[in-house]
């Protein structure tokens, strides 16, 4: 039985050898070295064009490195504005917008806190009251400032959420302006590579 198995394996090896080893040889023989080394398909007419392309590519890489170092992260600025309204806008140079958002949030939160403090004072008087008419009076007085407190807190929350959302656009504007400044100061070629794509300057 073992002799038959060995003979069968030898026969299979002899039969499959031409198939296994001829395919790579055929593929290798069909490789066109001239076409592979032809630089004109990349638009390079000669070695000088190839060197110019390499220098241009290296320069663009260097500019992108500068951009990556100086650009600001959208997520970091969102976190800043979430912690302190207007902080992200200040980081991107939008000082007026940051002041408006900061002032609005402070006024709204402060007004909400003021009415809540008044409602809390009436509520303390309500808890200490012993007469029925005083209990009703302080209970009613506590309702109105508490409702105002909730309303202003709602507006403050909306302004806070808008402040976090707005910093996304502010950061993108900052990064676009940064890239334009880097290109203007360091790159003088008519074809320019930007984070949004390729721009051709006429």
Structural features, described:
The chain has about 200 residues and is mainly α. A hairpin with a 2-residue loop joins β1 and β2. It has a domain at about 75-190. Helix content is about 80%, strand content about 5%. α3 (about 45-70) packs antiparallel against α7 and α6 runs antiparallel to α7. The protein is rod-shaped and about 100 Å long.
Short description:
The chain is mainly alpha-helical. The protein has seven helices and two strands; from the N terminus they run αααααααββ.
Order of helices and strands: HHHHHHHEE
Instruction: Determine the fraction of residues in helical runs and give it as a percent range.
Output: over 70%
The chain-level structural class is mainly alpha
The neighbouring-strand order within the major sheet is 1-2
Which strand-content bin applies to the residues? under 5%
- The averaged pLDDT comes out at 78
Distinct helical segment count: 7
State the total count of DSSP E strands. Answer: 2
Largest sheet: 2 strands, antiparallel
The low-pLDDT segments are none
Rg measurement, Å: 37 Å
Anisotropy-based shape: rod-shaped
Terminal Cα separation, in Å? 83 Å
List key phrases describing it.
mainly alpha; 202 residues; single chain
Show the helix and strand layout.
Elements: H1 2-29, H2 33-36, H3 47-70, H4 74-83, H5 87-91, H6 95-128, H7 132-186, E1 191-194, E2 197-200
Antiparallel strand pairs: 1-2
Helix pairs in contact: 3-7, 4-7, 6-7
């Amino acid at each position: 039985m073992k002799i038959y198995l060995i003979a069968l394996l030898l026969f299979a090896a002899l039969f499959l050898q031409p198939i296994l080893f001829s395919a790579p040889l055929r593929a290798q023989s069909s490789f066109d070295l001239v076409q592979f080394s032809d630089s004109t398909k990349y638009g390079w007419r000669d070695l000088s064009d190839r060197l110019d392309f390499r220098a241009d590519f290296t320069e663009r890489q260097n500019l992108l490195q500068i951009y990556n170092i100086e650009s600001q992260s959208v997520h970091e600025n969102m976190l800043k504005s979430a912690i302190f309204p207007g902080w992200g806008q200040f980081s991107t140079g939008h000082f007026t917008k940051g002041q408006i958002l900061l002032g609005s949030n402070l006024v709204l939160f402060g007004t909400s806190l003021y009415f809540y403090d008044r409602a809390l004072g009436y509520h303390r008087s309500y808890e200490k009251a012993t007469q029925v008419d005083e209990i009703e009076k302080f209970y009613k007085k506590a309702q109105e400032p508490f409702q105002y407190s909730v309303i202003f807190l709602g507006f403050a929350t909306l302004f806070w959420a808008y402040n976090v959302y707005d910093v996304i656009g502010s950061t993108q504007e900052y990064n676009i302006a940064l890239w334009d400044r880097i290109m203007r100061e360091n790159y003088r070629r008519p074809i320019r590579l930007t984070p949004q794509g390729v721009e051709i300057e006429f």
